[in-house]
Model the fold of this input.
Amino acid sequence: MSKSPTVPSPQSVLRNRGDRPVSVSKSMASSTNPKTKSLIYSLIYTAMIINFLWVGLFKAGISQDPVRIMTQALPFIVLIQVMYSIVGLDGVVSKRTGTGPKKSTQMSSQNSSNFFSALWSVVIAIIMSFLVFGLLVLFGAPAFTYSTHTYLCALHISLLSVQPMFYVYNFDSNIWTDIISVRLPLNPVYGASVGTWLGSWLGAIPIPLDWDRPWQQWPITILAGAYIGTAIGTVVGALYKSSRKT
Amino acid sequence: MILIRRWIGIFAVIVCQLAGIALFARGFFPKKIILTGHGTYFPTNDTTFSTYNEDGEGPMFDKMIFMVVDAMRSDYIFSTESNMPFLHSLINKGCAVGFTAHSTPPTVTLPRIKGITTGTTPNFLDAILNIAESDSSSTLANQDNWISQLKCQNKRIHMFGDDTWIKLFPNHFDRVDGTASFFVSDFTEVDNNVTRHIDHELKEQNWDLMILHYLGLDHIGHKGGPTSPFMPIKQKEMDDVIKSLYTSLEKSNTLLIVAGDHGMNGAGNHGGSSAGETSAGLAFVSPKFAKLKLHQKSPLLPRSDFNYYDRIQQSDLVPTIAAFLDIPIPINNLGVFIRDFLPLWKTKKTRTLILEQNAREIANILESNFAGFLTVQIEDQIMCEANEDYADLDHLKCLWWSLEDSFDDENTVYEFLELASSVLSKVASNYVESDMIFGIVLLCIATIIASTYIFSFLKDVKYLRNFFFGFVILYAVSMFGSSLVEEEHHFWYWAATGWISMLYIIGSRVRFRDGINWFFCLVLVRIIREWNQTGQKCSGDPDITKYLSLTSSSTLLWLLIIMTYCSLFDKIWRNSFSRLPGIFSFGLSFITVISSFFFKAVMAYESGEPVPKWMLNAIEANSVGTDANDKLVSLARFFFSSIGAGILYRITTVVWSPSQNNVDNGRYHLITDICYLTDVFFVNQSKTSNIPLFLFLGLLRDFLAKAINRSFIFSSKSIGDAGRFYKVIITIISITGIIMQHVTFFAMGNSNSLASIDLSNAYNGVSEYNITLVGALTFLSNWVGPCYWSISTLMTMFEDDIRNLIICEIFTKFKLKNSIKKYKETAFSMKVFFTLLFSSVAMLGVMGACLVLKHHLFIWTVFSPKLLYVFAWSVIQFSVVDVGLSALLLITRAI
Done:
């Protein structure tokens, strides 16, 4: 969070729009600017996530007491996710289905309703965390021991990947089918979600190594993998989206 | 033509692999510098010295009884858990002195006996020779040892017990009764064969050295683990033997040494380097020791590091025995005289002489390893006087320089002895690097041949090609990490989840609902991997096997086993024997399955595993009046022959089928029928607690086949491109097969440690030791999982009715009818190439790791066992079983 002042704030970016040379046609400006905006929001979010992983989890001593630190970190990650949803994700992701009317309603929606839908997506993420827990066990998390550790890890993963997805896509079964079969075109939100899962899968690699470091204990590497994956996924998604022609 | 070219390629790859293995092994496995000849007393500073004889009293002990109890871990004789009260009372009186003797890996009997008698550190190849017993190169004819020393002095040596001794010391013993060490299911007879001689021998006293080697405790460990109910009974039996021996010690001047040759790990096996395996118990027993006043207390509380009293090296026995019996120290000994016993000699002069002999003997080995060690030059003197921090070898030289004039200072002598011993035991064995590199080059050639075929085969399915190459390279790289080798199962479980998820994603893109089958596969893999905890770090953690092995869950276990056998019966009745008339097919299936079931039940009962009460009647009715072992052998033989007959019958139906064009000419479902028969065989070769695993393996096999069909056939978009579509199927089934082979191998409790080799099913149906038969059964009982998937993969690939029907339709539609056969032959050879490419790269990884890390601390404990495992995988599993099975089916033209 301490890094955010160094990155240009969204307001300054918005102000810059007015200063652009007049030679740029109006249609061009309207098509490039949301992309730039989205890219900048994604970068800010990435910085915050990495910063949070380092300061909020590792510096706070997750190696000494994973359960306590993961629990303490929950309100903060919820705050980050809600802020990112309201500020960064509003109208950034164009939806596949429900083209015209839906978009316009979302454009016109007030900040307060955005806030409630962000909260609602947090609630969904908390409910879905049980499913995530099941998936973690299926992928090899200990089945009979460390249940609290695994569940807290699942909650973090759910907040990182499920919450923004629900905020953006709600319950659109077609889109969710595409999400699960990894067919949706990349964008910052989807990139983050894929990154979370890929990161936590890759995070299992250091566990069997005999370095005997405190951070090798369950589930720190998985959690760190999820956070790093989210950060990388967001950047990759944002870059991919802004590099696309249409 | 393509087919012939492919099989020439396969042949070339296998030849390269075998030659590479042979060369690499020749260069890698060490040949230590061994001094030949016979040790004599070294000339000492005291020129009058000839023996340790003090005041004309003769040697410290006139006679010795050397009692080896196989696999006797330190806690079995010293801890409060042990059931050896007499020995404990002797320790408390001071008449016995206890030690924990460190047994150097590989912790198996033959190398350990070599170590205990010669005082050398073992040669890694001894571990293999321990299994290949008939090898004659393992005698100690050229290596000096205290048995030969005694023989030279015309002492009479009697030996009763493990016949390994007879192989190691031919013509040394004046009276012998050997017992074979390989019938692990025999707990009592092996030991009675030893004990029955004792009374007679103690009465006659016509020996100077008596060796007793008891095997029962080791067998109990292998069968029932360290906490088997038979363990305390056996310990009491050993205690009683010690008691009867002790009474005679007091009469004559005899020393009794009770020693374990190695320990055992948490599963009751040994061979590796864990704390339990390397901590053997050792006790010196004689009333003379009371005057040492060591005040040892016994029993002690159990310790997880198995350290009771002082921890010494097993080789330390050698100079100690030499001093006790007044013989020269064997010439290659690295052991150090046990300091606790030094005060037994009254004069300082004798004590100095004992240490001087030990020091001179070790200095002699130093000289042979590092030429010029004994000649101290001026610059060395300057270096020593400068008293700087110097390397171990320089330090040794300085110590030796200060010792040469006088060996009076005990502390300096011990500093020298201990440092020299540790330096020499670590001396890098002389690798022949050129052989190793040439072996690796041959493997590179094998890899290149195999990859060119795979590359051209998968040139239009790039994503699978990239995945496969990335995967095998990742595996090869992981072989460079010692903990990744120890915990290799994690790699496979991790890869399996990744692979299934990837297939899920690919499948659900085509039709979302079909993904659910992959999900079920994931669930089944999760259950299977929970069955046995393996590896080094967490092998003691709770798992399904440990739960099922509890006495309280024996009913559940046996109900699951009965369910497994019912499903097996159902499958062979409906498939394998279904061509026979109704009553015969039912009867044959029933007899086959029930004989295997009773075999497993009687074996479980005989080895002391918990068996539910309601089954006892049936078991006892079955084994009434006959010797249990005979019963087991005949049951197993009956079962093996009925399986063999079933398979033979099924193959002959093809060979003798009258017409080639007949729709059902015996080829239909041939692999399936054989597969179900071999399933029963694999169940029979598994540990009792692993049998229910086959229920889940069967489900996994079905779900994998269904998932592959659903995701890649029914709604495949590329169905018009028949060739590409068939390639995808072949690739996916082959890779899934390789992954599942490894997952199941580890899930059945195997690991990359020699200790996890399970011998409990290696003697099924064998009544006399036969190296080929026992070797084959050992392989088949440890590689059950991989073999299961070898044949299951073939079945899935070729005999899936629905898929075959669809493929037939497509091929007819595109007028490719004649090429169906061509495609099937492609499938056979390409499946083999996937396996061979994997095995070549895997071997390349392990060999590379062994070459690069040849000075690594864990080279003999982690990488060398892995090298042996990868050889077994490549040569036996992949080249013989996988390739052989494919070739055999191709030759019988069963496709």
